[in-house]
Q: What sequence folds into this?
C-alpha cells in the first residue's frame, strides 16, 4: 500500500498519478520489474513501461538496463 500523503506530495511537485504510484512503490521495493510494479499499483502493465520511461527521463529512477 502506498502512503496517500506521499502520493499527494509527489503530485504537488509535478508527477502524474501513475508516476507518483510507481515512484512510491519503488521507494519501498528498491528494485522491481514491471510485473511487480503492476501487482502493487494495479496500473495497467502497458502504462508501467511508459511511466518508468518518463521517470527515467526526469531522473527519478535509474534503469538497470535489463529486461523490463
A:
Amino acid at each position: 500500500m502506498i502512503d496517500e500523503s506521499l502520493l499527494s506530495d509527489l503530485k504537488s511537485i509535478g508527477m502524474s498519478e501513475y508516476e507518483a504510484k510507481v515512484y512510491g512503490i519503488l521507494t519501498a521495493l528498491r528494485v522491481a520489474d514491471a510485473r511487480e510494479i503492476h501487482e502493487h499499483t494495479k496500473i495497467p502493465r502497458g502504462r508501467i513501461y511508459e511511466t518508468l520511461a518518463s521517470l527515467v527521463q526526469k531522473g527519478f529512477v535509474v534503469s538497470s538496463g535489463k529486461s523490463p
